[in-house]
Amino acid sequence: MTVKVDFQLEQLDGKLSLLNLSDPVLGAVSVDFDDKTLGYRQRHSAQPEALLKAAGKRSGHPLNVVDATAGLGQDAFIFANSGCQVMMLERSPLLHALLQDGLRRAAASSEPRVRDAVSRMQLLLSDSSRFDFSTLSVAPDVIYLDPMFPERRKKSAKVKKNMFMLQQLLDDEAPADALLHNALQSARKRVIVKRPRIAGFLEDRKPSFQLLGTSSRFDVYLIPPSILPSTSS
User: Three-state DSSP class for 49?
Assistant: First the structure.
C-alpha cells in the first residue's frame, strides 16, 4: 500500500523550510550552509576527508565536480569548500527551491569561508539520469551520485530526520542504473557513488575501488583515458 505524503514550503525564521504535513513531528528541513554545527561536523568528521579522497582531490588542484543528486547540498559544499567548482543538479522542485534559498543566504554570510565556498557553487533544476552533460561549459572531472536507495527507507534511530524526509520526498526516484550509465558516459576522470555499506554494487557494476565508512561507503569508478573524447581538431 502506497502512503501519500504531503509537503509544504514555508518561511520560518528567515529560511525557506520544508514541512511534512503528514508527520508534523518531524519538524522543518532547510538548507543552511552557514550552520555552525554543520561547519563543525565537516571539520571534525571523517566523511569530508573520505569524500575528497574518493574524488582524487589534491591540495592546490581544484576539480570541476557535478553533484548529480544534490539533495540538501552538504556534500556539494564539502567539494566547494575544498576549492572545487561545483555544479549541483537537483530534479525535485522543492529541494531546488531550498537550495536556491540556502545559496542566497550563504552569499550574504558573515563568514568569509562560507561566502567563498558558495561562490563556487551553481545550481540547475534537472534530472541527472537524462541530463546532457555536454551542455556544460566545462566537462566535469568528477560526477558524484548519492541517490535515495530503498535499503535506506526504514524509519529508525539511525536515519536522521533530514534523510528520512528526503527519502519520502524522492520516493519516485529516477532509475539508479540510468544515473550511473549517464555519469560514466560523461565524467572525465571518475564517478563516485555513495552506497549503504552492506548494499550491492549499483547496476551490479564493480567499482575500481571502495572507501568504507561505518554505515556507508564510496564506490569509485575510474574512467579509462582511452575512452575520453578526443580534443584534437
Answer: helix
DSSP type of residue 157: T
Instruction: Give pLDDT < 70 ranges for the chain.
Output: 1-5, 37-47, 148-165, 167-176, 226-233
For the stretch 171-225, pLDDT in tens is 655 566 788 999 999 999 999 999 988 888 988 899 999 999 888 899 999 998 8
Residues paired with residue 86 on neighbouring β-strands, in sequence order: 65, 121
Task: Provide the whole-model pTM.
Answer: 0.85
| Torsion sign across C-alpha atoms 41, 46, 190, 211 | negative
| Three cell numbers, residue 42 | 565537516
CA 14: distance to chain centroid?
24
Contact 87, 124 (CB under 8 A): yes
Q: Considering only CA atoms, which of 191, 212, 39 is closest in space to residue 113? A: 39
The single residue listed with the C-alpha cell 561507503 is: 217
**223 in Cβ contact with 192 (< 8 Å):** no
Instruction: Sort residue 171 into left (φ over 0), alpha (ψ -120 to 50) or beta.
Output: alpha
Alpha-carbon distance values, 219 to 11, 179, 191, 212, 231 (Å)? 37, 14, 8, 9, 28
Domains of the chain with CATH codes:
7-227 (3.40.50.150)
